[in-house]
Specification:
The protein has 415 residues and is mostly beta strands. It has helices at 86-93, 104-112, 129-136, 157-160, 206-209, 284-287, 378-384; strands at residues 8-12, 15-22, 27-32, 40-41, 51-56, 61-62, 122-127, 144-147, 173-180, 187-191, 202-204, 237-239, 252-257, 262-269, 274-277, 309-314, 317-324, 328-331, 344-354, 357-365, 368-373, 387-390, 393-399, 404-413. Among the domains are: 8-62, no CATH class; 309-347, no CATH class; 349-413, SH3 type barrels, CATH 2.30.30. It is built from seven helices and 24 strands.
């Protein structure tokens, strides 16, 4: 019996395979009745094809194309030719601009700028078990992230490990946070100054790229705007100013197992500031790999309100707001009847300066402030005694009396 009624046939690597489209058409699941390189065991009971493999939609030639999804993001546009083969483009994406041959950095930047975020783009961030516990306990979105479209074919811990780089990654399962972007203004493309960032959505991370390995977690930030990978071409983003982003409706925590299975573990409920468990009993063993207090698999984890929040203007008043991108933004309320659409929407973030470095406030406890560096470099990391909490993200604690209050900044969205 076929694994799904949407079975089709596609050409991949010179062969024709039965397949189904996944991730709204961003990737294909190929099936085979014999072991082949790159194919994994098919975990479906009684499956007709015992082996399967996930490949990106841009890597196959479909003989029956699924209905186009208007919400699907667009792929990179790469000028491949006889003089510029794919392998050369991939190598250039892994070469820091200051080390590239003349003209190569400009080509890399041009390719990178073809990948964009729109309102409603599904984003992802690869997590370890301890990081999942942090989000269940109240962390907000921050740091390096990726479009889910570009990762749709990466479904195993081995495939996704490089996008986190932590030593705490589990070989049996890797986790990810998945959400929809409220607005492109919340994200920046991390580029080296040699590429001359030219738009508000591009940020100079030359200093971050220079942080020595002994002071950082994970692989180096290349400055090309691409993730460090051996054979992929994956564009990366960072949250603007490394600031937190409030979680929108539909944010989920998912798990990817060694056989390529994707399991939704939790979804976020912004009205209650809580996580709701979604997986069944057969996946409880995955929850046990998340080091949280209490019983693994409990229904939800209430979390506190953080310094960064969404505010909406309603009848002349500024109230806490909830985002359900791409189209719905309303006043925060626990009942649907009180979900009044807002007239305007803004993200409010508190900034401070400490020892000359611009930082965002992550948490306030008594007379102390937990700060995250907005423009980390080797000097500021050393002077502030900041620690790398994940790839590219550096935080420290400072006495509130020493941190010069930069005030709360409202970033307004164009609704």
């Amino acid at each position: 019996m076929p694994p799904t009624p949407d079975l089709t046939r596609v050409w991949y690597a010179g062969r024709r395979y039965p397949a189904v489209d996944v991730a709204r058409g961003a990737a294909y699941e190929l099936f085979s009745d014999a072991p082949e390189p790159g194919f994994l065991p098919n975990p479906r009971p009684g499956a007709r094809w015992p082996r399967r493999r996930f490949v990106h939609a841009t890597e196959v030639l479909p003989t029956a194309v699924p209905a186009p999804d208007a919400a699907l993001d667009q792929p990179l546009s790469v000028p491949v030719s006889a003089a510029l083969p794919w392998a050369t483009v991939q190598r250039m994406s892994q070469t820091p601009p200051r080390c590239a041959e003349p003209g190569e950095a400009a080509i890399t930047a041009a390719v990178r700028r073809t990948a964009t975020i729109r309102r409603g783009t599904t984003m992802m961030k690869v997590l370890t078990g301890p990081q999942v516990a942090g989000y269940l306990g109240g962390w907000q979105l921050a740091g390096f992230c990726y479009r889910a479209y570009d990762l749709a074919h990466l479904r195993t811990p081995q495939d996704l490990a490089l996008l986190n780089g932590s030593q705490d990654l589990d070989e049996a399962v890797v986790f990810a946070l998945r959400w929809r972007a409220v607005d492109p203004i919340d994200y920046a493309v991390p580029l080296d100054a040699a590429l001359r960032p030219r738009a508000p959505i591009e940020v100079d991370i030359t200093g971050l790229a220079g942080v020595p390995p002994s002071h950082r977690i994970g692989p180096q930030v290349l400055g090309t705007g691409f993730a460090p990978t051996g054979r992929q071409l994956i564009p990366e983003w960072v949250t603007a100013d490394f600031a937190d982003l409030p979680m929108p409706v539909g944010t989920s925590i998912v798990a990817y197992t060694a056989d390529g299975s994707e399991v939704v573990l939790y979804t976020y409920q912004p009205e209650q500031h809580a996580w709701l468990r979604m997986c069944g009993t057969q996946w409880r063993h995955l929850l046990s790999r998340i080091p949280v207090p209490g019983t693994p698999g409990q229904e939800y984890f209430p979390v506190s309100q953080e310094p960064t929040r969404l505010l909406g203007r309603y009848r002349g008043r500024m109230l806490d707001a909830i985002a359900d991108p791409p189209d719905d933004f309303w006043v925060a309320a626990k009942t649907r009847t009180a979900r009044y659409p807002v007239d305007a929407l803004a993200r409010r973030t508190r900034f401070v300066r400490w020892r000359g470095a611009l930082c965002v406030v992550v948490r306030a406890e008594g007379g102390w402030r937990q700060l995250r560096l907005c423009r980390p470099d080797a000097d500021s990391v050393h002077q502030l005694g900041a620690s790398s909490v994940e790839r590219g993200v550096f935080e420290t604690w400072a006495p509130a009396s020493e941190a010069t209050d930069g005030g709360e900044v409202d970033v307004w969205y164009d609704l």
